[in-house]
Backbone:
């Protein structure tokens, strides 16, 4: 009787575990993307990119400069909060901040394939606007995976990655050790594979006290690259406050000057 009861309990636990895995698989994008913290009014934006199935909206800082920089933000980041800093740090570049689909005042729903395609479309639009200028990229957190993709497929002068990761599946597996995340995850953002195709100057801004993307994932990305990047370490910085650290803006300005 006890053996049957134990087997019955194990069966119930197995079914519960399987149900959790199925739920995580079905709902994974709701658990991965957090656009609800970024929603805004379309009337307050000054940049639009029509993608056919969605209109993406954002902002241009320091317009009409010859050179440009594209900023790809973090998962729950209100990218418009960077406008004043970018205007001060990079006065000789036009900065483009476009909210991901489903974020800010942009239409649609986020997915890796859509965000990567949108990022390439943004680059192409900026290239059209700056035919003779240099185009650099800044990617923070989730945006580091997107910026790495653009750098792998377009002519990018310089690339800045802020709190980047090796690949999102590895990061997620570290947070959910009890789930087969590597098997379940659809949006993987494999920055190691994509960065291998980029051969230009690279700046990595590393947060030493990052609990969201532990520094080991940044270190693995750095170690995987075929060249030696410029690394500026902020040992006391967390994931969400690295931009407040002394020297952050100076590092960006110096590298992108």
Residues:
């Amino acid at each position: 009787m006890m053996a049957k009861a134990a087997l019955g309990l194990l069966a119930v636990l197995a079914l519960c575990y399987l149900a959790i895995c199925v739920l995580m698989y079905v709902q994974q994008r709701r658990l991965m993307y957090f656009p609800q913290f970024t929603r805004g009014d379309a009337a307050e934006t000054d940049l639009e990119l029509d993608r056919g199935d969605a209109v993406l909206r954002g902002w241009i800082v320091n317009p009409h400069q010859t050179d440009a920089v594209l900023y790809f933000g973090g998962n729950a980041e209100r990218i418009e909060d960077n406008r004043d800093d970018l205007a001060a740090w990079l006065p000789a570049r036009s900065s483009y901040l476009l909210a991901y689909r489903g974020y800010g005042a942009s239409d649609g729903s986020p997915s890796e394939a859509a965000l990567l395609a949108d990022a390439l479309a943004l680059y192409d639009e900026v290239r059209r606007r700056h035919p003779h200028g240099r185009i650099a990229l800044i990617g923070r957190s989730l945006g580091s995976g997107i910026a790495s993709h653009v750098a792998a497929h377009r002519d990018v002068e310089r690339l800045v990655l802020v709190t980047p990761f090796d690949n999102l599946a590895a990061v997620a597996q570290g947070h959910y050790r009890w789930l087969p995340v590597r098997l379940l995850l659809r949006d993987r953002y494999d920055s190691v594979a994509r960065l291998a195709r980029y051969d230009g100057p690279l700046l990595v801004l590393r947060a030493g006290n990052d609990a969201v993307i532990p520094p080991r994932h940044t270190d693995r990305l750095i170690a995987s690259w075929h060249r030696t990047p410029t690394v500026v370490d902020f040992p006391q910085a967390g994931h969400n406050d690295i931009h407040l650290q002394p020297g952050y803006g100076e590092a960006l300005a110096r590298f992108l000057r």
